Amino acid sequence: MKRTDVIVIGAGQAGLAMSRCLSADSVDHVVLERGRVGERWLSERWSSLRLLSPNWQTRLPGYHYQGSDPDGFMSSSDFAEHLTGYARSYSAPLELETTVRSVRAADSGYRVATDRGDFAAASVVLATGYCDRPFVPAMARRLGPDVRQLSPSDYRGPEQLPEGGVLVVGASATGVQLADEIQRSGRPVTLAVGSHLRLPRRYRGRDILWWLERMGIFGETVDKVRDLDAARRAPSWQLVGRDDHRSLDLPTLQAQGVRLCGRLTDIEGSRLHFADDLPRSAQEAERKLWRLLARIDAFAAVSGMAEQIEVDDGPCRFRAPQGPTRLNLRNAGIRSVVWATGYRRSYPWLQVRGALDPAGELHHHKGVMEPGGLYALGLRFQRRRSSSFIDGVGDDAVELSEHLTTWLRQRQSRAA
């Protein structure tokens, strides 16, 4: 059995950020990864995907983008290469191609069983990410076998899909990107739209994320949010990273010929039922959009930036049509469905009493779990609004590593 002070599970941006902080504090640790560094970015993302955040915002503890295109957007494979370079920059203690089978409490702390032997440590950091497993609703089982079904983790490109129409379910960042790409391939797309957040890619001459960062929105902590559960449930933004920096939203998709429907509510073989809530959900997204842009305008004025930046009327205003409430897949020529319905987390290997709440999520307070020595990193709104972002997980890692190292010293002091 291999022994160390800390075991970090996951070698994505969260796990490597924690590892870098632990290395800086000379804490003995190991990073366990079931595949390669950044495995999900390599094997569970479609080929054309680019990051939603610009390159200049790709910052992790002790490491940041230094290329010649700070306003561009990395592809998923480029970002995996970036993470590999990050791991090399501080000689990360990696154990790759190592699948965790169980984590259990032990007398000395925790015992982690893997397919390559067992590890023991006083502390374990769970850095397996927020986007763990694609969520596909139970009603998907009622679709006929003649309909091809894919999740975003399975999808690689339109060529995977049979000829004919495609239903994309979900209109957050993933759903709108896939609807756009598939529609451009010549396959007519129907998009089932639920709650969503509309954002322009650029506003008043700057990337929208530049504004959100400058205004301090990303740094808002869990203690300052009125309804934390609602904030954690909020859909992701309708954004896309492209060289032309164009926006991607419902009016753009409608102009391309995508048919918009409300939320998918039921499936009966080839017959689909949709809520009549498309105008209402689009109107709510419009309200939030224009409220945010008004905040940006006010911030620009108060900070003295208004005269230095472009005047921008903002995106076009949008009133969604009343979409169909029923659709027969056969009659509509729809032969495939892509489920862009979000992600869930699953921890069948985590066998520590009290580690999970009744819903199966990690039970934690700002990433600190019970019993002592167990930590989580990379969850949505874990400590601040940007906790699950590439550019935000590092701040959480710094704070959690400080908590962890203090806990280790106190533990060692008591043992002495």
What features would you highlight for this structure?
416 residues, alpha/beta, FAD/NAD(P)-binding domain, 2 domains, 7-stranded mixed sheet, 5-stranded parallel sheet, 10 helices, 25 strands
Largest sheet: 7 strands, mixed
Structural class: alpha/beta
Shape: globular
> If you compute it from the alpha carbons, what radius of gyration comes out, rounded to the nearest whole angstrom?
23 Å
CATH architecture of the largest domain: 3-Layer(bba) Sandwich
Question: Level of helix content?
Answer: 25-40%
Instruction: Compute the average pLDDT.
Output: 95
State the low-pLDDT regions, or none.
none
- Could you tell me the number of beta strands? 25
Number of domains: 2
What's the CATH class of the largest domain, please? Alpha Beta
Report the β-strand fraction as a percent range. 15-25%
CATH topology of the largest domain: FAD/NAD(P)-binding domain
List strands and helices in order, with pairings.
Elements: E1 2-9, H1 13-24, E2 29-32, H2 39-43, E3 59-60, E4 63-64, H3 76-89, E5 94-95, E6 100-106, E7 109-114, E8 117-126, E9 133-134, E10 148-150, E11 165-169, H4 173-184, E12 189-192, E13 197-198, E14 202-203, E15 206-207, H5 208-214, H6 228-233, E16 237-238, H7 250-255, E17 259-261, E18 264-268, E19 271-274, H8 278-302, E20 326-328, H9 329-332, E21 334-339, E22 343-344, E23 364-365, E24 368-369, E25 374-376, H10 393-415
Parallel strand pairs: 1-2, 1-8, 2-5, 8-25, 10-21, 11-12, 11-21, 12-17, 13-16
Antiparallel strand pairs: 3-4, 6-7, 7-8, 9-22, 14-15, 18-19, 19-20, 23-24
Helix pairs in contact: 1-10
